[in-house]
Amino acid sequence: MNLLFSCTEDFESKNYTIITSQCKGPKYQATSCCAALKKFACPFSDKINDLKTDCAPTMFSYINMFGNYPPALFASLCSEGKEGLSCTDDEVNAGKTNGVPLRFAQSPMLMLTAGFLTSLFNWF
């Protein structure tokens, strides 16, 4: 059995307004939704990309909970290549002091897990 370590980032207390105010349905626009996701998630990309933790599924479960988004919305809308979304844009990294380019990878397995967890939470 492959157990994940608990995420050290407190995604429960994050402000998701940057996503929920820009990514609205019923016709979700990839441009606005993906830009908002990047602005929110890129500061945490090192933790989200750590596949030994539950950071990515936890973050996506809260995004879906606060935004009431359909399962796997961001996985289907947001793709910039096989490595996922780039966090190297100046706009995304505004406020970062180390200037290190980061990658926010959305692996298919990770997105399936996030979608499954979101669906599971919606049943209860």
Automatic annotation (TrEMBL):
It comes from the Eukaryota. Pfam families: LLG1. Residues 10-85 form the GPI-anchored protein LLG1-like domain. This is Similar to LORELEI-LIKE-GPI ANCHORED PROTEIN 2. It comes from Actinidia rufa. The lineage of its organism: Eukaryota, Viridiplantae, Streptophyta, Embryophyta, Tracheophyta.
